[in-house]
Amino acid sequence: MASSKDMWSPSGHGNFESFASKLPEQGTLLEIGSCVGKSTVAWAEAFEKQNKKWHIHTIDLFWGVDTYIHNEKLLKLYKASGIEIRSLTGEEMLNEFKENIKGRDNITWEQVEFNHDYVCPVRPTASFFDANHDYASVTTFLDKYGELDYIFIDDDTKYFPGTQKAIDEFLLKFPREVIRGKVCSILQN
Fold this sequence. Notes:
The protein is α/β, with parallel strands linked by helices and 189 residues long. The protein has helices at 16-21, 38-49, 65-68, 72-80, 90-101, 135-145, 161-173, and strands at residues 26-32, 53-60, 107-111, 126-129, 150-154, 177-179, 183-187. The protein has one domain (4-187): Vaccinia Virus protein VP39 (Rossmann fold), CATH 3.40.50.150. The model has no long low-confidence stretch (mean pLDDT 88).
């Protein structure tokens, strides 16, 4: 099986072992925005290392990096935040994802858009949001899954002010234990 350490990602991600240590012994993680699967596999490795029995269900449109980063302003934003951008078509992204998760029977996935209408086929215990890092998308995610005991949101940095604003507004309405960093962890009280 492929190691997450050997996989490309448009961002470095956080310490998944630390995140997994905050979670119960078993459950289901819904990951929104898997790209090529580095974070998906990093979660799986963290659960395995801690002998936790977690199912990971991940969704992505797999529409390609070139489609997502479609204008110069967004490209500059990603570069300023230290994100390594690589050209990938949707087909290349999906094929790389499939190859990266091969052999991991605790991972299922869907090629689907996340929005208010999305219905996860399994009831999540926790969620990791790593999709569109804008205010509207993060707010939609928090509206839909904010009741979960364990929420993780990537790119909680000054380079993504929409992400930070959505998190700040959520925490004002629903105060919870929070660990701010590149990946924001919102945990049960």
